[in-house]
């Protein structure tokens, strides 16, 4: 059976680029043939895996300029059945794509909210009066450009080539060092034992360097967050990320997403999880994974 890899589309997105890198890695390391499947949103690409329409999804989770991709965090929490099996980091270099003759002719700029935010200072400086319109992905609006010369989109140089569209400006992200971390997600956890079942779960990887988890708290009282955090400190487990998201149940109530720099099977992490269960309301462990060297 061919492995289907869901990602944010239409073709040309950064998510497709990351999915393609993973596809090549998978093929080289396990011989598996995989095919990319674009979906209209990040949430839909994750749901495709939960509904068995695809075996894997590659989704953005964090950017070095703009921080967390909240749709990914919210959907991982909502869908109980998904496991993170790998992470990969790619450089992001935005370009302004348009059929306009010059920047002065551009009146509207479309892009994914993350890309708009990563270029906000450049936009303020060079296009202070344009209307900024968020879209589901950096490539969603590219087909509009030929019909409307006032419109531009922020996307990659690769997307401009793919759609055969002119580039008005390059390197427009506010910080040159712009990178996004993507997660590879599946329904089954990766198996590090060579004897285990399915080929897709048997891919050889380095030992896991990170574990991602999230929890809600039993009560909104002083010290409710300090206690779970102290568990990691006490056991000498370094945290590389903490992010809060609304529970969506009531104003001011939050979920906490944590990345710990250890494998879930390490004895210290197992102790941390047993203690965490006592001090959290709902605890979800999304998986242990390594970061693919790119
Ligand atoms: O719209 C795209 O091209 C995407 O792949 C999404 C996305 C994101 O959500 O962060 C991916 C990488 C960049 O940071 C900008 C946009």
Automatic annotation (TrEMBL):
Residues 213-290 form the ACT domain. One of its GO terms (molecular function) is prephenate dehydratase activity. PROSITE patterns: ACT (PS51671), PREPHENATE_DEHYDR_1 (PS00857), PREPHENATE_DEHYDR_2 (PS00858), PREPHENATE_DEHYDR_3 (PS51171). Keywords: Amino-acid biosynthesis, Aromatic amino acid biosynthesis, Lyase, Phenylalanine biosynthesis. The keyword Cell membrane does not apply. The record marks 180 as: Essential for prephenate dehydratase activity. Pathway: Amino-acid biosynthesis; L-phenylalanine biosynthesis; phenylpyruvate from prephenate: step 1/1. This is Prephenate dehydratase. Its EC number is 4.2.1.51. PANTHER family: PREPHENATE DEHYDRATASE P PROTEIN, PREPHENATE DEHYDRATASE-RELATED. Residues 4-187 form the Prephenate dehydratase domain. InterPro entries: ACT-like_dom_sf, ACT_dom, Chor_mutase/pphenate_deHydtase, Preph_deHydtase, Preph_deHydtase_CS. The keyword Acyltransferase does not apply. One of its GO terms (cellular component) is cytoplasm. One of its GO terms (biological process) is L-phenylalanine biosynthetic process. It comes from the Bacteria. It catalyses: prephenate + H(+) = 3-phenylpyruvate + CO2 + H2O. NCBIfam families: PRK11898.1.
